[in-house]
Amino acid sequence: MNMFKMDVLSSTLQFSTSHLSSTTTSTIVALCVFFALLCACIIIGHLLEETRWANESITALLLGLCSGLVVLLVTKFRSIDILTFSEDLFFIYLLPPIIFNAGFKIEKKLFFRNFNYILLFGVLGTVISFCLISLGAFLLINRTGIANLDIKDILAIGAILSATDSVCTLQVLSQEETPLLYGIVFGEGVVNDAMSIVLFNSVQSLNFSTINAVTALELLGTFLYLFCTSTVLGIVVGLLSAYLIKTFYFGRHSTDREVALMMLMAYFSYMIAELLELSGILTIFVCGIVMSHYTWHNVTENSRITTKHSFATISFISETFIFLYVGMDALDIDKWKTSIASVGTLIAVSSTFIALVLIGRASLVFPIANIANCFMTRENTRIEFRSQFVIWWAGLMRGAVTIALSCNQFLISEVTSTEDSALMITSTITLVLFSTMVFGSITKPLIEVVQLRHSRQTVSDSNDYHDELRLLFLNGDDSINETMDEPLQRRTRLSLMMRYPATTVHYYWRQFDYKFMRHIFGGRDLVPVVPGTPLGED
Amino acid sequence: MNMFKMDVLSSTLQFSTSHLSSTTTSTIVALCVFFALLCACIIIGHLLEETRWANESITALLLGLCSGLVVLLVTKFRSIDILTFSEDLFFIYLLPPIIFNAGFKIEKKLFFRNFNYILLFGVLGTVISFCLISLGAFLLINRTGIANLDIKDILAIGAILSATDSVCTLQVLSQEETPLLYGIVFGEGVVNDAMSIVLFNSVQSLNFSTINAVTALELLGTFLYLFCTSTVLGIVVGLLSAYLIKTFYFGRHSTDREVALMMLMAYFSYMIAELLELSGILTIFVCGIVMSHYTWHNVTENSRITTKHSFATISFISETFIFLYVGMDALDIDKWKTSIASVGTLIAVSSTFIALVLIGRASLVFPIANIANCFMTRENTRIEFRSQFVIWWAGLMRGAVTIALSCNQFLISEVTSTEDSALMITSTITLVLFSTMVFGSITKPLIEVVQLRHSRQTVSDSNDYHDELRLLFLNGDDSINETMDEPLQRRTRLSLMMRYPATTVHYYWRQFDYKFMRHIFGGRDLVPVVPGTPLGED
């Protein structure tokens, strides 16, 4: 490190200020490099917008790799702090804004309309993927003698490789043209992140010295506990923010206070969840949804524009930063040195991982989709084969969550040997680089070939269907009351609920929301619009 | 630390996730506490908005003190990381957004109209204050034998105590009612921060083993060098951002990229200045001014609203955080333990500091103001006595910059003994607490008593005067060209320039700006307005 610092600094000025200590100087060098690279990423990504083969993730990844190489050459292949992936940085500062923004900007209608599918793919699918990949890793790595991993490590690999990164595919899909597909891929991606992290936490928290049926039950119990408590915590913090902002009416004095409070409360929800050892990711995601449903409607017009765009901007910067960071981290020479395995072994393990991902994904998407299709009565809610293919494809990319979890598991493993741990980390990095760059760059052309642009009628159909249903319910409430007798009415509702459970739940939720929640926590069209300060004045 | 962590955590859950390491856990506890306190500050500050005696700074300071006390009680008076002031955190993350926002939201007209006064008070005044306080400290502390300080420490104290904090006063003054006074206090405050930090850096960078006239010249040279290079760097980065955003026309694809680029470039200017060992504070301030003049006008409407409010929000959060942090830091038990001085000594040194601040400030404000009045030909640009009083008062408060510089100087001092260093730090903290709470809380009533609300005519007068002048210049450009001969015209301009140098420079700058700069870097009314995405859609 010192050498690099000296090279950069000594040539600049003859006098030195002791104003900042030496750790700080290295921080400053690192920040400078990263800020310059981030700016470059944004500009290059903007220029490549129209290109078929590239996207922002790949640009950032490649730029990260190049600058990592430059740093390595400058430091003459010595290990350097700047290249080491810090999972604290990732989990405390980079991931929360991305997940919060995913919840905040979520199209709630889109999400809840496809709620069944999202649950199926996101929750059930991730669990299946977790089991299959764990089993596969056990058979292909431990049994073949490539490495000797603990049962905990094997399960961790299952969770690590289950965390997909569907950003690439989402950039290609169009929400207007294929709303069902977009909704499923988007919703699954978000739920999947939360699920794999919760699964990973559950695996880590258990003691696997004796494995029996009780352990599996414990795993399930821990998982359910984490899932429920985290969700509840997110809802509570979100509602609290809505209540505070509605009650104290901040817009009267300054919109900046509202924005500040929203930012702080969102982040606070994550921190308090981590403090209570729950899943912060799930909490902040739920908090984002609640905030966009209530809090966001309680603030001034200017605050709405500001929060909408600043959350998106922060999330965008974090995402780009992560890819850049992953690219640079791939050249952390220490990891490659520690792994004494030959290139052949590395390729073998990486290929195994890639194969597991491909097969594991296929053996959950196609069965689930086809079984679900059997239960779907209406044509336009079915998933046709090419949509299934796109869903399968979208789940092949692996990203920063995978690397972060892998570092977390194998950098401080007590059981597994250092060489095997390093092998696992380098294989994971290889998998991420390969999937993002190879799978990622052919996503756009591939999806264009699969040609999904024709199914435009889905939107209107789907809307019709919901309108129809809503009409039925509304009738059941008001006009039919007089003409229809009570038992018949109840029977109609019951049969409706059986046929469209998600929609029915959504309907009752809306009733509850309008009659009760909105009076306490505010929401759309309920709080008088406070005109913000006009632009240019203060 | 451990004990506190255990108390909080062990009572919550029986299983532990090793997902986050133990350093991270303490970070999370600290972040949780700070986020909760920040939210509390915002809410309490909002509720106290109408009160005469309180303001946000005092609320934050008191809350910080209280929570520091609670933490101390919980940990049973053991030292705890959370209470230690980290100057890196302050200089790298908290101060830059505040200074950038000060530059970004600056009323350029207000600033440049009062440019002469701001330079007089901000630059000359700070230098005078620096000399007087250094001399006073030398005579009152070293000569009386209270402590034995190095010459470098004495000069550092001069710079440390010269950094004023006029936030309190600005909250009370009204920009509409007393524009001249507001402009001077605001402008001086900003320039003063930059000046004292540059002075401090200059002092630290020099070798004081032999003191003679050359040392003084070196100090001056270093100071001028830092001042000029930092300013130029800020201008360059600001213009670069304007050029990039204008050329690449980011709004076409997404407003988030524009906002991200503006944030990143602003911060980058600070980092690059620190890397080159210049004054990052001055650089980011200048960068803020340039960005608000060019870059801000090149982005979409939504990006403008977002940047305006998000920069203000981040600055607001940082400011509140700093006061909270200073409050908590005051209870860092280690500092008080190391200072073995008796309570009497502490009070003596603190009183000396307060006296130095009071007298030093008085002996620069009143002379400068009265000398300046002699040169001012027009009645409404003179500073009447009660305005002088307010300017004097505004410069009495000391804030976070003082504490940060003091920690920087005395935590790692090689020459001065540990006890004397600790004494200086505790005295500085006492000074900051006293001035913010005592002087701060009587600011509002005091200024209301001084009754400045009547001088409303100043605005229109001042405008008239500028309009008049502009008309003269415009005539000189266009209509008079035909009727007046060249030498006469030039003579008129020359005499005008002698009488109103700042205004004349401003006039030529505007000519240059319109004819040359704006074509390259964009600016108001030059770039076609790109309608942002309407609210609610994506």
TrEMBL record, chains A, B:
The keyword Zinc-finger does not apply. It is found in: Membrane. It catalyses: Na(+)(in) + H(+)(out) = Na(+)(out) + H(+)(in); K(+)(in) + H(+)(out) = K(+)(out) + H(+)(in). It is a multi-pass membrane protein. One of its GO terms (molecular function) is sodium:proton antiporter activity. Keywords: Antiport, Ion transport, Membrane, Potassium, Potassium transport, Sodium, Sodium transport, Transmembrane, Transmembrane helix, Transport. Belongs to the monovalent cation:proton antiporter 1 (CPA1) transporter (TC 2.A.36) family. This is Sodium/hydrogen exchanger. It comes from Vicia faba (Broad bean).
